[in-house]
Design brief:
This protein is about 40% helix and about 15% strand. By secondary structure, it is an alpha+beta fold. The longest helix has 25 residues, at about 20-45. Belongs to the MotB family. It is a single-pass membrane protein.
Length: about 290
């Protein structure tokens, strides 16, 4: 009898294909987005109202300019340097319009020849000396580099202007209030000894930015600017500046913006201390 062979059947099961990790990528994107969202919520909760307003003004649409220098932005091609001056960036003569060039010249300090035409030589020399003395007094402050963006010192046809200027996210007075920040008080106290020593009489003028269309100002702008000018005078007087040195204290509301093309931005909020030029002496025989 023949032996039958034993047949063993092996059935191989086909392996399932790899499902891939696309879901992991989607999940990672979701977790990243949630982390960014909660980080944003945390940052918003830690931001003061003043900082929020500064951020909103920073990202507000500004007028555009065809000039290549960027002069169509909110500062119209100017910047505040560490010495406290406003300087104008060079413009493209072919693309910049004549109106924009006139605007840039109107907010820049001006050249020496321009000042010669508007100020007597004696006043010019005295004012240049006053500017140097005021800057030297401020440079002694430990945090002057940080504060320099908020302080503008420049000669004008009236004399010398020392302006305390708000910047985006950094104001010199509390929002809608006549109360200055401590940094503002320190700046004024640093200037007081020099202002007391100089012979110029002082005119203090408060300015503010215009309210954006559709929004109402919480404080009447005339009262606000006059109150801030008075607060500056009181700090200077308390630091030793004699009462006889003050010529006027005025609030101008939003009638004289530093940047007429954009009256809503923060640098329009300022208090200007003007060291007035000496009045010319009246000849004794004028009325004889």
């Amino acid at each position: 009898m023949a032996i039958q062979p034993i047949i063993v059947k092996k059935v191989k099961k086909a392996a399932h294909g790899h499902h891939g990790g696309a879901w992991k990528i989607a999940y990672a994107d979701f977790v990243t987005a949630m982390m960014a969202f909660f980080l944003l919520m945390w940052l918003i909760s830690m931001t003061t109202q003043e900082q929020k307003i500064g951020l909103a003004e920073y990202f507000a649409p500004a007028s555009l300019s065809p000039a290549t220098s960027g002069a169509g932005g909110i500062l119209h091609g100017t910047a505040l340097d560490t010495s406290g001056n406003k300087s104008s960036a060079p413009r493209d003569a072919e693309t910049g319009s004549a109106a924009q060039k006139d605007s840039a010249r109107s907010i820049s300090p001006g050249s020496a020849s321009d000042r010669d035409a508007s100020r007597p030589a004696a006043n010019e020399q005295a004012n240049d000396s006053a500017v140097a003395s005021l800057r030297q007094a401020l440079q002694k402050m430990p945090d002057y580099a940080e504060l320099s963006r908020n302080i503008v010192i420049e000669p004008t046809k009236e004399g010398v202007n020392v302006s305390l200027v708000d910047q985006d996210g950094r104001s010199m007075f509390r929002e809608g209030s006549v109360d200055p920040y401590e940094r503002t008080r320190r700046v004024l106290e640093a200037l007081a000894p020099t202002l007391r020593r100089l012979p110029n009489r002082l005119s203090i003028t408060g300015h503010t930015a215009a309210a954006r269309p559709g929004s109402a100002s919480a404080v009447e702008p005339w009262n606000l600017t006059a109150g801030r000018a008075l607060a500056v005078r009181e700090i200077l007087a308390g630091a030793g500046v004699p009462n006889d040195n003050f010529d006027s204290v005025v609030g101008r509301a939003d009638t004289n913006p530093a940047f007429p093309d954009n009256p809503y931005i923060a640098p329009n909020r300022r208090v200007a201390i003007t060291l007035l030029n000496a009045s010319p002496a009246v000849p004794p025989n004028l009325f004889r």
